Every structure is written in C-alpha cells, then in structure tokens.
Amino acid sequence: MLKKILGKAVSTLAGGDDFAIPQHDSPLFAGLDWDKLPRHVAVIMDGNGRWAKGQGMLRTAGHTAGVKTLKNILKTAIGLKLDALTVYAFSTENWKRPETEVSFLMNLFSEYLHKEVQEMHEDNVQIHFLGRLEGLPKSLQQQMHDAEELMKDNTGVKFNVAANYGGQDEIIRAVQSLAGKAANGELNPADIDEAMFDNSLDTAGNLPVDLVIRTSGDMRLSNFLLWQAAYAEFYFTDVNWPEFSPECFVAAMKDFASRDRRFGGLNDNKK
Ligand code: IPE
Ligand code: IPE
Ligand code: MG
Fold first, then answer.
1. Among 26, 83, 143, 175, which has the highest number of CB atoms less than 10 A from its own CB?
2. Which atom of ligand 1 is nearest to the CA of 240?
3. What element of type H or E holds 88?
4. Single pTM value for the model
5. Which domain holds residue 142?
C-alpha cells in the first residue's frame, strides 16, 4: 500500500505527460476575451490534503500532486501573457501543522526548484519569493536566491511564490523598514504615501492584484496579500488544487471578464 502511494506521488511529480505552453489559438483559449484578462492573478492553492484523503492517500501525496498542477497553471499563465502570477505555497500560520508535514513541504519546495528552475528560465519566467524567507531552511533560502538571480533579467511572467508568507507579517516588516528610515532622518513620515508603502512590500514592482482565486471551497483570504488585494475580484471554486486544470484556470479568466469593476466610481452604462 505504502509503495503504491509513494509510487503514485513520485510519478506525479516526475510528470511524464508534459503540458506545453498553450499558444494563442489553442482550443483551451476558445471564447476568451483577450482584452479583459486580469494582469495580476493570485492563487490560494488549497485542498491538497482533502483531495489526497478522498483518494485514500496521505495528505502529503496531495502536496506532491499539487506541484504538477502548479506547473501546468504557470504554463497557462505564460500562454495568457499575464503580467504576474502569485501563488500561496506556505503561510506564516502553516508552522502549526505536524512537523512531518512541514518538513515534507520544505523538501518538496526544494525538489521543485531543483527540477523546474531551468525550464522556468527557458520559459523567460522571472521568479521571486515573498515572505519572511530567513525563517526557511538555509539550503532552501540559497536555492531561492540562486533562482531569483538566474531569472532576474528575464522579461516574461512574474512568478511570485509566497513561502513563510503572511500579509500582516509583510505589512509589519514594511512598517519597520519605513520607521527605521524615519528614525535615522532618511525619510519624512509625512512623505509616506500609498506608492511608497507599496514599494516597501515584498511585491514591490508588481501591479495590484486583479483576481484572487481560491480552490477547494473555503472563502477566506487566510492572511494572503492583504494590501495588494484591496480592489481584487474573488473567484472561489470547490475544485481541490490537485484537480485544478488549465481549463479551470481559463474558466476563472472568463468569469473575471464578466465582472463590472467600478473602483468606487460609476461606469458609463450605470450613470
Ligand atoms: C494547501 O492544501 C497547501 C498548503 C497549505 C501548503 P492544504 O494542505 O491546506 O489542504 P487542505 O486544505 O487541508 O485540504
Ligand atoms: C492557505 O491555506 C495557505 C496556503 C494555501 C499555503 P490553509 O489551508 O493554510 O488555510 P486555512 O487554514 O484553511 O485558513
Ligand atoms: Mg487548506
């Protein structure tokens, strides 16, 4: 039984059936309004454990399966020419999980980077990590740093991976950094505005989040991108992350295209 579970998990990660970047005229994109795509999409990749349980597998097998989903969604985001894809991989609250699950996840992140960095680089992806990275294992920090360095001059999709990330923690770190500058006279507190604050966050240089997707049925932010999602649209689906397909992602894009975004104002047809 164990062999079967591990075998399945390993072959899922190895992912023999590679999904290529879908081209503009791919049937996957049929009926899509390209002028109404979000530019920055953020995803709360939830439901790995529940999916695995439903398959009679260990929770950790769900995380392994989720890596394959992530790979396919990144390829789809590239095909869509999104400006940024930001994914929630590990929260500041996830340390509350059993030590075995936490260390499995840390190893999985490391294995993922080891296997995928070169291909992401070839796909012109700019990877960036968000969160309190110094709280992660040293070797993982090094891999993250190396991946960011390798891809720093790329011009394709910005792929932000949130690990040991909490929106409140990120805001506190930004406040500490600005307050430090004010205390040593580098900054006049009255000059702090939204743009400066935005630039002090881990997501500096990214556009605001247009769309937050959360899989597996729960409808909450769980401390994700509290500042950046100020005017985001939300899309919730019952599908668990390991089964969230490129088709599901495109369905979210189509739903987004139908939203009436008013930003507090009035749209012409509503006057
Ligand atoms: C999301 O899946 C992945 C992480 C939080 C790392 P979960 O592990 O939260 O799966 P569920 O929500 O328990 O099903
Ligand atoms: C949010 O999922 C964090 C990630 C997807 C990494 P959780 O499963 O940790 O969120 P809660 O506990 O249901 O709020
Ligand atoms: Mg969860």
1. 143
2. 14
3. strand 84-91
4. 0.94
5. 38-166+203-258
